[in-house]
Every structure is written in C-alpha cells, then in structure tokens.
Amino acid sequence: MVGVADDGVRQVVRFCRSSDGVNIAYAVHGSGPPLVVDACWMSHLDFDWDSPIWRHYLVELGRIATVIRFDERGHGLSDRDVDDLGLERRVDDLAAVVDDAGLDRFAVLAMAQGGPVTLHYMARNPGRVTRLVCASTYAGGSGHVTEDDLALEEAFEALIRAGWDRKDPAFRRVFTSMMIPDATEEQMRWLDELHNKAVTAPTAYAARRARRDADASDLMARVDVPTLVLHSRDERMNDFEQARRLARGIPGARLVALESRNHILLEDEPAWPVFLREVTAFLAADRDAADPAGSPVTALLTERELDVLALAAEGRDNAAIADRMVLSPRTVERHLQNIYLKLGLTGTTARTAAVARFLTGR
C-alpha cells in the first residue's frame, strides 16, 4: 500500500508478523538514517497521513530521517481482534517491525505510551539503538499514585466503555481536550474521529488497563546511548514529572521543557519549532555517520542484500532472482525495498540507481 499526500510526500505501508502471529502494519517514508517511532496509543497509518495534527510531524521528520512508524496491535491497520495487549507482546511487535524493515541500527523516538516498550526492547537488544528521543512519555511505575489518581482513571475507563463507539463524539472529546487543549475545533474534530477509527471501545479499554502495568523504571540506568527528553511543561496526559524522572534516571540524558499545554504539539505553536530544532540537531550525528550518498554499498547492505543486488545488476528480474536464490518473489521484493531504503532511493528509478551504485562500488 502506497500513500501520496498533496505535497508529494510518499509513504509505503507494509505488514509483518509478530511472535504470536498477529499482523502489525508499519509505514516507511522520508530519507536519511532510520528513525523508528514507538508508538502512540491512538494511531491509524492511513488516516494519520493527512492529519491536521500529525502531518507536520510526518513531513518534517521525513526530511531528516527515514521514518518507520507502526500501528500497535489492535489499532489502525494492524490486526484488530487481539487478546493480549500486554507489555511483552508490544516489545515483540517493535522487534518484528525493525527486523522486517531490515534495520540493523536505528534511532528511536519513543512517544506517549512508547517509553516502557522502548526501554525493554533496548535492554533485550543491546547495541541496536543508536540514539533515544523521549517525547511526552514515561518509564512507568512512578510510585506516587494517589486515590484521586485511581478514581480519575476509573472515570476515564468508564467513559471509554460507555461512549467510545458512539456516533456522538462527546465522550471521546474528553480525551481530545486533554491531549490538545489549544487546538482549533477542526483539529479537535479530527482527533475525535481518529479515536473512533483507530480502535474499538473494548480494545481501547483493555489497552489502557494494560498500560497501567507497563513499567521499565529499573531499566533507565542501563541506557547507554545519547538520550534527549522533550516534554510539554503543562500537558495533562503525562505529567511533566515523568520527564524529570527519565532525565534523572537515564545517564547523561538532556531534558528540554517545551512551553505548551498540548500532548501533541500543534504546527503553529511556539513549542513546535523548538521540538523540531532539538530533534534535528540530536539526530545529526546519525546522519553524518550513515550518509547513503557517500557510503559504499558494501558498508550499508547485508550480505543477502548484496547478493540480490548483484543478480539485479546481471539484468535478472525478481522471478529469476528468486529462482536463483531459492526465495519467494515477495522476499526478493522485500530485500529490494530494504536496499532502496538504506540507500535513500525512491521512485521508479530506484532499481537502476541501486544497480549503478553497486557496479561503481559507491
């Protein structure tokens, strides 16, 4: 599945299978070093693509990185009928996405509820993540849950069960107004609709309850990569104290407070260019270290990918390559897509350009 927005930015949607057989949808767009976005509570890869509140994230991040984002199990384009929404499965889903995308090393943008998942993945897969950006997320297990907090959470869960699937968005608007209190009515209506499109009420309820138990507090001290923590100072979804805990707990982490009340930064608010500037500067080292235009293909591709490209350079089509390598044509196509991704190539000339890079050794 390929999506092309009005401004010409293109995303490719793919599917991979997690450890328990659940199909996870992920999308790739942009160019540069890989940046995996892990992952928002509510997402729909296709619906988000033209969103008035997400579009600026996607366009601008795609200018500085190859962005890989995915719909969590039970959400969006991923399998909906899912029983297990726990932390262990979510970590497996992240692993399935990055492996299917052919990523050896990559930066992660952990957003919203993605913090515990990312920290657990990093602990289990040392050396894979190059840099970590934590955006309005948390490690979990704050230890300061009051009776009022529990009562409020019970009220939220009751709202989900009673009103999430209703045509009238009044119940969903409670969550929308907490996430983007400074948004326009148009933006709020879009988020109201996303909530309904992204997930059903039973899954939204189960997912929210599962997230209450997700905790990676004991893993913060083990993070050994450069880390940037960005958080809206006055947002109401994840308290700013969560950012302080991350910055204190992760060795060498740098905290940037964003002057905003919005959980999702809006394009026209002053905090957005601060966020973008900080992330761009933070990822610059990865761009310098892995410039597809200046690095030889042998340094960027795996041995299997080089074998596929060598056969393509002989003029063989995908079926002939598959026959020679005893693979399925779909697997050959997946290898080629990963090659194009790593070399920063897009469009109808990507195959020709990749072969040219291979033949010249560049």
Textual characterization of the structure:
- It is globular, with a radius of gyration of 21 Å.
- With 362 residues, it is of the alpha/beta class.
- The chain contains 15 helices and 9 strands.
- 47% of the residues lie in helices and 15% in strands.
- The chain has 2 domains: 2-144 and 213-289, Rossmann fold (3-Layer(aba) Sandwich); 297-360, Winged helix-like DNA-binding domain superfamily/Winged helix DNA-binding domain (Arc Repressor Mutant, subunit A), CATH 1.10.10.
- The chain has a 9-stranded mixed sheet with strand order 1-2-3-5-4-6-7-8-9, with helices on both faces.
- It comes from Nocardioides euryhalodurans.
Regions with little confidence, pLDDT below 50 for 5+ residues: 2-7
- Note the gap between the termini: 30 Å
The count of DSSP E runs of length 2 or more, i.e. the number of strands, is 9
CATH superfamily of the largest domain: Alpha/Beta hydrolase fold, catalytic domain
Could you say how many structural domains there are in total? 2
Per CATH, the architecture of the largest domain is 3-Layer(aba) Sandwich
Shape field: globular
Q: Can you summarize the main beta sheet?
A: 9 strands, mixed
Briefly note the CATH topology name of the largest domain.
Rossmann fold
Strands of the largest sheet, in order across it?
Answer: 1-2-3-5-4-6-7-8-9
CATH class of the largest domain: Alpha Beta
Instruction: Provide mean pLDDT, rounded.
Output: 90
Give the percentage of residues in beta strands. Answer: 5-15%
What pattern of helices and strands is seen along the backbone?
EEEEHHEHEHEHHHHEHEHHHHHH
Number of helices, where a helix is a run of at least 4 consecutive DSSP H or I residues:
15
Radius of gyration based on Cα positions: 21 Å
- DSSP helix fraction: 40-55%
Helix/strand structural class: alpha/beta
